[in-house]
Amino acid sequence: MDDDAEVPRVLNHGDEGERRPGGEEKEERKRTRPPSSYGSMKSDSDEREYEVEDEDDEEDCVDCTFPDTFKFESPAPAAAGFQPPRSASPETLYTMTTQLTKPPGAMVIHTRAADFLEDDEEKEEEEEDDILYADSPEPPEPVESDEVMQTEDNSQPGRLHPLQDLPHIFKSVLATLRRLTREELFKFKLCFSQWQSFVTVPELMEGDVLDFVDKILEVLGQDCSLLDTLRTLKSVNKVAEAEELRKTCDRAWIRYHLKTYLIRKHEVIHEGIPRPGKRNRLDTIYVQPQISVCGFGGVDPSHQIRPQPPSPLQIPCVDTSVRLNDLFRLRKEDGRPVRTAVTTGIPGIGMTVSVGKFCLDWAELRANRNLQFIIKLPFHSFWRLRDSPPPSKMMSIMEVIEYHHLECKDMKCLEEADCKFLIIMDSFDCYQATLDWENSPVLTDSHAPAHPDVLIVNLIRGNLLPGAFVWILGRRAAVSQIPAELIDVVTEIQGFSDEMKDDYLTRRFTDGALAANIVAHYQRLPMLRMLCRQPFICWMVATLFENSYRYVGYGVKPPKLTPFYINILVVQTNRKLQFYYNQTENNLKWSSKDKDMLMQMGKMALMMLEKNSSVFFEEDLKEQGLKLTEVTVFSGLCTELPAATSTARRTFCFIHLTYQEFMAALYVFGKFHMESQSKNVLDSMSKTKIFAVKGQSKLAAGLLHSALDRTLRAPLGQYDMFLRFLCGLLCPGCHKTMLEGNLFPHNSPAVAGLGEVQQLLEKTIASAPQERLANLMECLRELTQEDA
Description:
By secondary structure, the protein is of the alpha/beta class.
């Protein structure tokens, strides 16, 4: 019997004129069977006509199609058994689009039995709605439910591949179970009930095979139904049938395992140090940042004091924004779809979290359902493969995929023309080797082993797995080595708008009062509100303020700024040690090399302030003995600005101008605090003294005196934030509590003479110009306020 013909059988009443004597009992059974939720699904061939067969009789009935002009309703449940309510299939609803008219020359088939027809004209009019037209046009494609449709504006609803969609699973499971004998099917149903508690044994025993498949798909869904069917077939020693079904539904089977892995990995977001009982679902707290195909480097030029950033820091241009899930619906200039996309942004802008949200939306059928598979191949995995195996153990790209996803073994469909899938290559900056884009050998065989360098180059070139979409993410200074001709589109994550910041901070807390307090508190500090453009800073604000509001009386004074910058420095340095140098979370230790690098970066930042410049170049790093990759990629404090042309000079800057000012202050304070002679690096630079501080050139007041001299003689904004950070670092709560054990040794003494520093600062405020007054008051608060 044709399996496709069995699918619509439960909806067909047959023609009474074709019914043989003795068929009343079978007809009554058909009439009381609830309609299949999948009865109106079409087979793979749109032109194939269904053949209707009686289950126990080999004689064919009249071939027919089914009307779209009425709504099927489930009959009342029988008294003898339990019949759960079934949802009507969306394809069978009566709608304006399903009203079909009789085409010229169409054959008319009456579906009612002749015994029930009357000759009067009234009855004939009532029966007109029950006429089927055999030559009527094909019904429209099944309407997808809202739960599996994309809801983003301007998005195209994706459709699952036919081999992954419900009709294929339905027919495949049905065809497999129809080959079982009556005893085998009975045993199968008993074993099947052990896997799920949602369907009882009496429910599974009701009806025939079609009813059984219909029931499990309706209650369990296609993935669980397929999985439990395969497990049950193996448990009843039908291994051959199980393997055949798995091969038939291979793409659906692999997609199920991939999406299970992605849901398990990204459903809960892990931020900072995990705390027992503290778990945040990504869907709950995620706010999509602004993403643009017209990037300017990702550096926000806004500043609290400076009216405009020092040239030549680029200013944001008119953006062309794109939604995260629409990234691979973009088109190139010639109209062809994008294959290779690169996404970049400054450190802490949310690239990794956005990847997790993209994968979670795909796995839960909310977006990009036209992608059959999403395969994650992060660059740090390639880097481990590059370092660990000798050349004799080189792997092919298919072996690399299987190594990371065991369920993808023998995925021959990846090389087929109709297979549309995405490979996500996150953290390009983790691959610390230089790739030879010009001289790498061409590799087209996906099963040929090769060096990881060669695999990466050929995958991005499109030689390996040419049907795959490739999404590369990394910091701009790292991804800039990829030749432009190999990239179809470059997108840039540009962070949160003001509304997004407040939305994110509100989503994180179930306590509405706490959320409102945190939002109001961080807005009291204008510079902190600017920094919260980075989702990483938003997370830090939420974490620090949540802990602080546990103390009675917190929030009366505005928050201090310096502790946030210290936290940013500590978190980014620890992340560098974990991510790039494989240190464990419980054994993070800043080496003397790490400390020296930070101090040299601070020295370079101070020199940039002296020149009133916001950018630096590779020769500036060499002058300070710094390595390009260490500073511009690994540190998490700097980024590369996009070059106007391919031959232009590479230009770098700190991720915000205030980071540059903080690092300059950190260098000045560090030299003063760590040197045995309390070195004042500003003393030799100050040619004129504003105040005479006798006997304090070696003390904190002398350091502040030099900083005040430099600040008040420079244009407004050049050194003002530098002075504020220096005052904040002089506070014991910052240099003693937060930096001791990291940048400074344990048990190092606190800075002495802060009373004189406060008096000097108050004296300066009393005679300061009006435009400097507000910042000097903030400097005094950074120095004296105890809470953060």
